[in-house]
Amino acid sequence: MNYPKAVGELVDQLKLLPAIGPRSAERIALWLLMDSKRNPLSLAEALVECEKQIGFCQKCGFFSEKESLCEICTSTKREQNTICVVERAPDVIALERSAAYKGLYHCLGGVLSPLDGVHPENLNIDSLIKRVRDFSDGGEVILAISANVEGEATSHYIADLLSHRGVKVTGLARGLPVGANLEFADQLTLARAFEGRNG
User: Fold this and answer.
1) Helix, strand or coil, per DSSP, at residue 86
2) Residue 109: closest CA among 123, 120, 90
3) Distance CA 93, CA 89 (A)
4) Per-residue pLDDT tens for 147-185?
5) Is 51 exposed, middle or buried (0-12, 13-18, 19+ CB in 10 A)?
6) Contact residues for 79 (Cβ-Cβ < 8 A; gap 6+)
7) What global pTM score does this model have?
8) Cystine design at 91: which of 1, 45, 66, 86 (Cβ 3.0–4.6 Å)?
9) 5-15 vs 22-34: helix crossing angle, rounded to 10
């Protein structure tokens, strides 16, 4: 015996969410139907409001009200000659929570991956180059992109494009996380840890 059609459709929609498998989708759907603390209409309204109101910043690609700039790009307290380049908008949240960075951001929308059909023209690279042209004196571009093959290729590509523009291009330090055991570290992580060692 199957669930009523509407429940099945809800489960199918929940399965489309990242990291939600069929069993998790079913549990969430049943919770939304049965639990006394549930409020499915509020959830639905929040989703509809996000769809109506939230888009991406026209300058950096971070989340913003539709057709407008985000709070970071409009802030006068941020360092205007420093741009941290990330893959996607959620990466900005992670860096902001660290409170270690006070400049601007630029979201690429992914990384180069020719096998998956992602080429330079599919990413927000041209808009990054235009922003760097507006730097007043020098400036710095920090590449905070994943340390995998695609991320490294993307970082090298961008660094090469910016190498003749009088801007300092840096990358985040890579290496062993605090509390890590050497025996479980991969070769690339260990190599980066040696390259970035300090005294």
Assistant:
1) strand
2) 123
3) 7
4) 888 999 999 999 999 988 888 999 988 777 777 777 777
5) exposed
6) 102, 103, 104
7) 0.81
8) 86
9) 130
